[in-house]
Amino acid sequence: MKARSFHPMRWVSALVIGSLLAAPQSTVDAAPLSTAMSSRVLVQAKRTQAKKRTTTTKKRPARATTGTTRRVTKAPIVPVLRFTTPRGADALTSDLGTLLNSRTRNGDWGAMVVSISRGDTLFARGADAPMVPASTMKLFTSAIAFEKLGPEHTFSTDVLRSGAVDASGVLAGDLVLRGDGDPSLSPRFVRGGPDASMNLLAQFTAGAGIKRVTGDIIADASAFESRRIPEGWLSRYAGAGYAAPFSALSLNENIVIVGITPGGSGDGARVFLEPATRALTITNTVRTVAGGGSRITARRVGDDRVVVSGTIGARAGTVRYQLVVGDPATFTAGAFRAALEAQGVKVDGEIKAGRTPQGATVVTSLPSPPLARLVSVMNRESINLYAEMLYRGAARGADKTTVGSAETAVTTLKDFLVRQVGAAPDAVTATDGSGLSVLDRVTPRSLVQLLDHAHHAQWGSAFHASLPVAGESELLRNRMRATPAQGNLHAKTGTTNDVIGLSGYVTAENGEILAFAFLYNGKDRWHARETIDAMGPTMAAFSRE
Fold this sequence. Notes:
Structural class: alpha+beta
Mean pLDDT: 88
Oligomer: single chain
């Protein structure tokens, strides 16, 4: 076997991302923050030869029998599905077909593999079948965002004033917090905890000389449609952190942390929110009891109230729960108001949703990181909120003259796919940008066509670098290890109860770059994942020689 030739298109991630969401959220109540741990146990058996010795065996009483012999059968041992090392295009086609048929007991497959280097199709099975994509849908969102905005594009969250500021620092008018669809206002990018983003804006506002606001705090989220939950998201997703509502004005991925600190035994407990926000009121009936345990329920009632009840031990320390917010824009504006008050800026009015008045003056702004970094976080961690915001941000465009909505986004996407990618007009049906919608449909061929286009686009390097790497990073860290795919294959995953998908790039042994799309829709998803994890290294081990 010839030594493998390594193509320069091998990506290794050096991105370190802190996460606010430490645990998945239940569909109704808050879930405690926790960290899962796993370990591997290695057991080695050693055979030894024993010397003969005399033993005394007790006789067991004879059992009554029915005259029949009961046969005990063990479940057959199914060998691990292993990758192959095909030599020649025909061998690769045959091996991938065999792997595709060898494990899954039900469901449907759609798959396609194309050599970007040579332009030929190496494998196709149901390539034009409409399939539910799950999070592989984020590849389309990534591409349209890069195409319409560019990898260096930044979003801006602005503070504006509608009146004049006198010599004593009194603003005779409203203060507006205007959202631009920036998903990065969180500890993932802004150091200092959940309050850090709004604290910065409050500090800049106070530094501009404003000491008092006689009017209201206006939350302007008009850059996006008013709908907060995309069409096709199931009702059972409600309250889950992965399905938080979106808004052009969002903070901390629209998650609020509820903290509970015990008081003295028999006293009430202290409840606080992170970030602090004036948009949510707290109803607290938690009692402090002896001991170190806690039994607490934290839930949101409507869009503006958090109810916390139960007991907490005097020795428990502070415990934290997470809740999805109901109205992201007012939640964010409420956090801005709390941060202003912490800076000594008094606000006489209320928090209201509205639009920025014509002629308003910009006081300060907080820019986002470049789009390339945001897309990388979205794809590597598969964050649905990022996808929904970037999908609508791409439709809004760099000139910001269009309202970002699912309708304008799918029109923009289809025009891009037909005119520039070469996909069929009906190849993609999208009601969201994340793939969480059960109404989304894509063909494997359209995914591969998109990957081919992205590879040659000016923004191709940023697109490539945004994808997890097999055996090394994020959602592919524990997959395809110790195979030719490790450190080589980079792709977007897609996983729900009924979908397993993987779509991206891999460099073959002879240096060819292959674009692939594997989508499985069905109930046998564990076997489907095993199948994909054998096909990945099989492509990596492929050579035409």
